[in-house]
Amino acid sequence: MALLEFKLPKNLTKALKITTYSPKRQQVRVLKKLLKKARFTEFGQKYRFDELLLAKNPTKKFQEYVPTYNYNKIYAEWWHKTLEGKPDICWPGVIKYFALSSGTSEAASKYIPITKDIIRANKTTMVRHFLTLTGYQDIPVKSIGKGWLMLGGTTDLQKGPTYYAGDLSGISATKVPFWFQPFYKPGKSISKTKDWNLKLDKIVEEAPNWDIGFVVGVPAWIQMVMEKIIERHHLKTIHDVWPNLAFFVHGGVAFEPYKKGFERLLAKPLTYIETYLASEGFIAYQDKQNGKGMKLVTGNNIFFEFVPFDDQNFDSEGNMVEGARVLLLSEVEEDKDYAILLSTNAGTWRYLIGDTVRFVDKQRAEIIITGRTKHFLSLVGEHLSVDNMNKAVQLVAGELNLSIPEFTVAGEPHGTFFAHHWYVACDEHVDKELLRNRIDQTLKDLNDDYAVERDSALKNVYLDVLPEEKFLAFLRHKGKIGGQHKFPRVLKGKMHQDWREFLKTGA
């Protein structure tokens, strides 16, 4: 039976009704719903949620009463209590699940609360997104009704005193709706496998037994598993085993660097669809073919605020300063970078998730991800963003006909001045000096501040070309394999030290 033939449960069908309200009005309704549900929690009592609900302008009062938080602050003041099993702290009840998230630059794991309410909300958004796929001209309806492979973390979660913890993808896989289970691959048995390499081996062996219509995951890991399947079963392309494979749902990193490598594994083009699913919530998804960006989920369970990502609101290390300017959705402008604050039904309140976005269509609340607050380089005022880096690599790779699936950049001293050090993954023959010069020049063309500083205090650019496997080996070495783990585009602090040591010793 095809997936689209299933009748959705009544409560989910009701939740899926697409509201006709404007994004601004949706956001007010979402905030009121969150405040009402959490008003008897410790957090709700401290910040007088009952009073906020009676205010003429609850959104502005919410901003006046409730402080902003980063992870360290909200954990120290509130979330540590939820890990101890105490109920009704930031959200009603006991928190039974936590998503382990270390981002891509920090060593210690963060415990992000995952409530029943947010799991339910993520499912609703997932199905809303799924239903938009029928409007994509390049996706055959039969492929939507086939199996889907989600390459995520293990569903065999870590057991704490009163909770379970693991990758969000692993937690989500344990909660797959019954009406999706016949189509979900690799299935419950393989998904429980903790050893990432063993899990991949099982997937590779079982691949010919599945009829896969679409794949979901981080590009690097999806590409690797497809390469292994082709090699193991002596195929020319992945379509030799999955002829109905039509689209790839990805997120977390820019896809363009991987596209050339992907296309070498295919007999026919795939449609690439971007989503924005973070540990803190399902934030946005691409809802139409050839859309400029992803549409924010403004009418479900997330109240959004935005902080202009500039020198007035963030320090040189990417930390939000005291008294930073915070805007509502209705106050943002197109083509400017913003850091996101989220309030959700997981007890996340005015929480800085660390990502930066840019609005490409304000009326539709459509965004692109431009980087992270701590993943940028501005040693001397060059203000080099991940978006700049991605574009430069994409343009130069196309110009030189290269596949560059991974790269990372670090700032280094250069005498009394500074330099950037690029590490680029490429398994083809490449003129390293030509690549260095072309990336440097392209960045000058893209970023005026960078161009100015390259003639001043940013004295040099170094570049090393490494096999792609070296990047994956480092992630394995750090215990960051599979699931939602990505290689950081900017290396700072301990991660930079560990990378340099790894390149020297391989361990």
TrEMBL record:
UniProt domain GH3 middle: residue ranges: 297-361
InterPro entries reported in the protein's UniProt record: GH3 (IPR004993), GH3_C (IPR055378), GH3_M (IPR055377)
GO cellular component, one term: cytoplasm
GO molecular function: acid-amino acid ligase activity
Annotated ranges, domain GH3 C-terminal: 388-492
Superkingdom of origin: Bacteria
PANTHER family membership: GH3 DOMAIN-CONTAINING PROTEIN (PTHR31901:SF9)
Descriptive protein name: GH3 auxin-responsive promoter
